[in-house]
Specification:
The structure is a single chain. The chain is α/β, with parallel strands linked by helices and 660 residues long. It has 3 domains: 161 residues, Substrate Binding Domain Of Dnak, Chain:A, Domain 2; 145 residues, Rossmann fold; 238 residues, Rossmann fold, CATH 3.40.50. The protein contains 29 helices and 15 strands. The longest helix is centred in the first third of the chain and has 35 residues. The relative contact order is 0.13. The structure holds FE(4)-NI(1)-S(5) CLUSTER with Oxygen (BF8). FE(4)-NI(1)-S(5) CLUSTER with Oxygen binds next to helix 14, helix 22 and helix 26. The site of FE(4)-NI(1)-S(5) CLUSTER with Oxygen (BF8) has 16 residues, from helix 14, helix 22 and helix 26.
Length: 660
């Protein structure tokens, strides 16, 4: 068993911990024990009603097999896929809704612990929404912006607000194929309705509803989450941090914030810096209070405060197994209930904070934005009180890596010329000249059924070697950070000659940490800005850009993949296809969607093939755009990127201009 575990996680620190404590069960053990049902695994099982579950198997199942109701295999596979999209959209949608309610509360003068930190971004958002902001009190504008966006959830007819941020041609494609989303809740409900027994029996039509639902996530729930989080807590800019399980301190109180919604975590960031609480920690024998993050809450607080990350999804249990965690506080999503069982071996207290996430055995503190800071202080005090209960048990590791995180789309624009000359022109020119071959969004989960984080690391290394600029989000960021890849030095050591030159000129890593999973919406914004800049494609489709989720796990990942594909970005997901049983559904996701949107949804289990396919998509897009053929080390002419000295000069005078 120990040997198998070793092959499962490619993270040195996690591996050490797991091998050191073989008696504690982790997701790696459960993945070994739990063999997936082969019929459900390929999308050939329907359990949407109680005449089944119906399993459509056999040599000619695609054309001859039927469930008791008569549903064919393509219908059953399409329903299954669409329901995954609905689940993922619901998760990101509710996240966006919660952020909108927090902004509304601030605008209405409640939730006194929160404020509008990025007024300029609030105004930019108001501008997009056609809300008057000049000369008005900030909180009034915040209230109007939040109220307007809350309409996106319950709207029955019409179009969602942020769709207009997409290039015109992309919007036209959505209209032409009838996939314009109306309101988030409506699209989720409709997918569930269409896919229940006795409803839509046309796989293409079912998958159209999945697209509408996913677009409601990308250009709705996720984009609202990103923008409102920036407005409330500040738009990220590059910041130094550390990554890996070695971030915990033997002689300090250690607290983890885990999940996705950063509202409570932001308050905890403030609370751990309060002199009274630090002094209280000292009375218990600790030298201070150390805060670390996990999964996407980690990305949120890392980007804005430099709080170190303990890693992604598969690090939840190993983190507790260090024996150093005094309080492990969780909000929503990707929180495995098994953490409570692992915590029983140690002194660690698990605290749940969302009424949507209760775990028997955890302490529940129901988050209330009106008393958020007091709740944060309560949690920090609980951790301090628990510090003396720490024993020698656990596997303490010291390995950690420096990293730079926090590349918002605003900063990426700014770094290409400063506040006054910021644009996407240098990046577009570098792509056109072949210095940068293309862009890959490396995203998604780390999966215990793979050599966890290993596929991210393989692709990250190979892509930058091939002069592909990477923008990374979610647990992929944690995987890259935990391997030491998120530093500018990585470009010098490992990037191809063109990408290295660009990274050196701007002073950036070859892998840009864009944030949490909802921040995949930042990639949409970047792609739209590149299209608007000109010189490449005039829509998102056709750009030399690809999305890859090599170790995906969640329904959220599927929803993200679909909104990228429908926005025009080919996506490659690792592992076997969950709809491989149906050739027709596979054809729609790949060929039909590519024809309609210039994006496609491809599943590919072999990491080498994932790389090859990504480069092929990029090179074909370059060819279609008639760009210079990519040849390593041979570039065409392009405008010169600003050097560091010139950028610093601009930076001195203009940071305030963009509110950074
Ligand atoms: O939302 S990458 S395991 S933590 S689902 Fe979850 Fe996957 Fe991690 Fe963030 Ni995204």
């Amino acid at each position: 068993m120990a040997k198998e575990k070793q092959a499962r996680t490619s993270q040195h620190a996690a591996e050490l911990i797991i091998l050191d404590q073989p008696s504690i069960e982790t997701c790696f053990d459960r993945a070994d024990k739990m063999k997936p049902c082969p019929i459900g695994h390929e999308g050939a099982c329907c359990k949407n009603c109680y005449m089944g579950p119906c399993r459509l198997v056999g040599k000619d199942a695609e054309t001859t097999a039927k469930g008791v109701c008569g549903a064919t295999l393509p219908v059953i596979a399409a329903r299954y896929f669409a329901r995954m999209v609905a689940g993922g959209t619901a998760a990101h949608g509710d996240h966006g809704r919660d952020m909108a309610f927090t902004l509304l509360a601030v605008g209405e003068g409640h939730a006194k612990d929160f404020k509008v930190k990025d007024v300029k971004k609030l105004y930019r958002t108001a501008d997009i929404l056609g809300i008057e902001f000049e000369g008005r009190p900030v909180l009034d504008v915040a209230k109007d912006v939040a109220s307007k966006m809350l309409e996106d959830f319950g709207r029955q007819r019409g179009e969602m607000n942020f769709l207009k941020r997409a290039p015109k041609k992309t919007q036209e494609r959505w209209k032409k194929y009838g996939v314009v989303p109306r309101g988030m809740d409506r699209e989720v409900v409709e997918v569930m309705d269409r896919t229940t027994m006795g409803m839509d029996a046309d796989p293409d039509s079912i998958l159209d509803s999945a697209i509408r639902c996913a677009l409601a996530n990308g250009w709705g729930g996720s984009m609202i989450s990103t923008d409102f989080t920036d407005i409330l807590f500040g738009t990220p800019m590059p910041i130094k941090a550390e990554a890996s399980l070695g971030i915990f301190k033997d002689d300090e109180v250690n607290i983890i914030v885990h999940g996705h919604e950063p509202s409570l975590a932001e308050m905890i960031v403030e609370a751990v810096q309060e002199p009274e609480l630090i002094a209280y920690a000292k009375t218990k024998g600790a030298k201070g209070i150390n805060l670390g993050g996990m999964c996407c809450t980690a990305n949120e607080v890392l980007m804005r405060h430099g709080i170190p990350t303990a890693g992604g999804f598969t690090n939840q249990e190993p983190a507790i197994m260090t024996g150093l965690i005094d309080v492990f506080t969780v909000d929503v999503q990707c929180i495995i209930p098994a953490i409570v069982d692992v915590a029983k071996h140690f002194h660690t207290k698990i605290i749940t904070s969302s009424d949507k996430v209760k775990i028997p055995g955890a302490i529940h503190i129901s988050f209330d934005e009106n008393i958020a800071k007091d709740q944060a202080r309560q949690i920090v005090r609980m951790a301090i009180d628990n510090y003396p209960n720490r024993t020698k048990k656990g596997s303490h590791v010291t390995e950690k890596f420096p990293m730079i995180g926090g590349f918002s789309h605003e900063y990426i624009e700014y770094m290409q010329g400063g506040s006054w000359r910021g644009s996407f022109r240098p990046l577009n020119d570098a792509i056109a000249a072949g210095r940068v071959r293309g862009v890959v969004g490396l995203a998604g989960c780390d999966n215990p059924r793979w050599p966890s984080t290993g596929v991210h690391k393989f692709l990250a290394t190979e892509l930058i070697k091939n002069d592909v600029l990477i923008v990374s989000t979610g647990c992929s960021s944690a995987a890259c950070g935990g391997a030491g890849y998120l530093t500018p030095e990585n470009a010098l050591e490992n990037a191809g000659p063109g990408l290295r030159e660009v990274c050196e000129a701007i002073g950036i890593p070859p892998i840009l940490h864009l944030g949490a999973c909802v921040d995949n919406s930042r990639i949409l914004t970047i792609a739209a800005a590149m299209a608007a800049e000109g010189g490449l494609s005039d829509e998102i489709g056709g750009m030399p850009a690809v999305g890859i989720a090599p170790e995906w796990i969640t329904e959220k990942a599927v929803s993200i993949g679909v909104y990228f594909a429908a926005s025009g970005v080919p996506v490659i997901f690792g592992g076997e296809s969950p709809v491989s049983a149906s050739k027709e559904v596979t054809r729609i996701l790949t060929e039909v969607w590519f024809e309609r949107y210039k994006g496609a949804f491809v599943f590919e289990p072999d990491p080498e093939q994932m790389l090859a396919k990504a480069l092929e998509f990029i090179d074909k897009a370059r060819e279609a755009l008639k760009l210079k053929k990519y040849e390593p080390g041979k570039f065409g002419t392009e405008k010169v990127l600003m050097d560091m000295a010139a950028r610093r000069e601009i930076e001195k005078t203009s940071r305030a201009h963009i509110g950074l």
